[in-house]
Write a structure and sequence with these properties.
Radius of gyration: 28 Å
Largest sheet: 7 strands, mixed
Strand order of the largest sheet: 3-4-5-2-1-8-9
Number of helices: 23
Structural class: alpha+beta
Distance between the termini: 88 Å
Number of strands: 11
Shape: elongated
Strand content: 5-15%
């Protein structure tokens, strides 16, 4: 098998070989190349020790030198070059206590997580596949290298990575590997929130976010996202729904594009339903106030998983407004754009559409037509540059002070009142009309 290695990767491998060392592209880049996917990173493994790597290449960074990893810089690109190694005992379910360097490529491949990630390649030897990675690629399987219990005991994050790779590649997890996942899932409590966050986002933004249900069935979400488990089996006995809360959420995840904010929003949008569920005397279920409860849960979970403030701001706002419905009128859309935010409004529309598509057929066409009308009005409002924010008002605080208003709370309240006045009718957004409105208001209050 021939893999087209990038020129800079070839340059690194060739220079290591010229110095008398073995060197191979290794891991995910080999897997993705075989699958005709574009690798995100190219990692290189070598028999050269870190000191030798640093002597061979002019620009290097000691990114993980205690574990044998040196980053080689070529132009603006960086490549991790790691010495063949054997990991010592793992004490924290994540990192080996020590590593020993070796001259044997097979020993280095033996310590890796899954067979499909334990292949190496260079143009001289071609594909090195000691543990059946090619066979598992052909059979579409996620299988651990060697004993899965050993691999997961060494590094518990691999438990979540198994489901993530399953979602990215649409490969089922091999039965013995899945059994080990179920047994050792509680060890995920030892993994940092940041690592969990990274894997969760990769799973959600994969082509198959619905595999989060596999994570539930294998006991993973019970440890890292128990809020998911709380949705499972919660029935929605209402004409608007045909799935339980978790199943509905799975469909909404598939009905939005692979965007971090959208997928996270759909994950959380109905998480408040179990807590807010009531059933009337006719047996119909109601979930009043679930959007605010879902927003609260989203904020709690996102903070727990150490998401950045911008992600928390965007996702919680979209969760809060996911059920915000309106008649498609220009004034309603302008007001919604003001509340939700002009930049977030396309996200809001995508969320509403995914939600509607994942409900029952009752009034589905009408719901979708309403969203399409709102989208058309949104585009028209943008095109005509109609005022939907304080910044777009034809007057500012300075003009109001010139009319005799004092700075402070009353001035701010008047600006907000003027904005509401303009949201009803954009033709009112002229300095003359707004100043006249303020003057009349001041005269009335005298």
């Amino acid at each position: 098998m021939k893999i087209e290695l990038p020129k800079k990767v070839l340059f690194i491998i060739n220079n290591l070989q010229l110095a008398g060392y073995d060197a191979f592209a290794v891991g995910g880049c080999v897997r993705d190349s075989i699958l005709a996917r574009k690798p995100q990173d190219w990692d290189i493994t070598t028999s050269a020790k870190p000191e030798a790597i640093k002597e061979i290449f002019r620009r290097t960074v000691d990114t993980g030198i205690e574990h044998g990893t040196v980053t080689v810089m070529i132009g603006k690109d960086s490549y991790e070059v790691t010495t063949y190694r054997i990991d010592g005992a793992y004490e924290d379910s994540r990192h080996p206590k020590e590593v020993r360097f070796t001259n044997c490529l097979e020993e280095d491949l033996r310590r890796r997580d899954f067979t499909i990630n334990a292949m190496a390649y260079n143009d001289d030897v071609r594909l090195v596949d000691v543990f059946g990675g090619m066979q598992d690629l052909n059979h579409h399987l996620i299988r651990c290298v060697g004993d899965p219990r050993e691999r997961f005991s060494e590094d518990a994050l691999r438990i979540l990575r198994a489901v993530r790779f399953s979602a990215q590649l649409d490969f089922p997890i091999e039965p013995d590997t899945a059994k080990a996942v179920k047994e050792l899932a509680p060890n995920l409590k030892n993994i940092s929130a940041e690592r969990i966050q990274t894997e969760l986002v990769k799973l959600l933004t994969s082509p198959h976010p619905e595999r989060i249900q596999d994570a539930c069935e294998l006991g993973i979400t019970k440890v890292v996202l128990p809020e998911w488990d709380a949705m499972v089996g919660v029935k929605q006995n209402t004409i608007h729904h045909k799935y339980d809360v978790a199943e509905h959420t799975l469909y909404t995840l598939k009905h939005v594009k692979r965007d971090k904010y959208l997928r996270l929003t759909m994950l959380f949008h109905d998480m408040g339903k179990p807590a807010m569920k009531t059933t009337d005397e006719k047996g119909n279920d109601h979930f009043k106030g679930h959007a605010l409860e879902s927003e609260k849960i989203a904020r709690t979970v996102l903070k727990r998983l150490k998401f950045d403030n911008e992600t928390i701001r965007i996702v919680t706002k979209l969760v809060c407004y996911h059920d915000y419905r309106m008649e498609a009128t220009p004034a309603n859309v302008r007001r919604a754009m003001n509340r939700i935010g002009v930049e977030l409004f396309p996200y809001y529309l995508a969320v509403r559409l995914a939600d509607a598509k994942s409900q029952s057929t009752y009034m589905r066409r009408e719901k979708i037509e309403n969203i399409v009308e709102i989208r058309n009005l949104y585009k028209q409002i943008l095109m005509e540059n109609q005022c939907v924010t304080l910044r777009q008002l034809a007057v500012s605080g300075r003009e109001l002070m010139e009319l005799g208003m004092k700075p402070g709370r009353e001035l701010g309240a008047m600006l907000s009142e003027l904005l509401e006045y303009v949201l009803d009718d954009p033709e009112r957004n002229t300095k003359e009309k707004l100043c006249k409105y303020v003057k009349e208001k001041i005269e009335k209050e005298k």
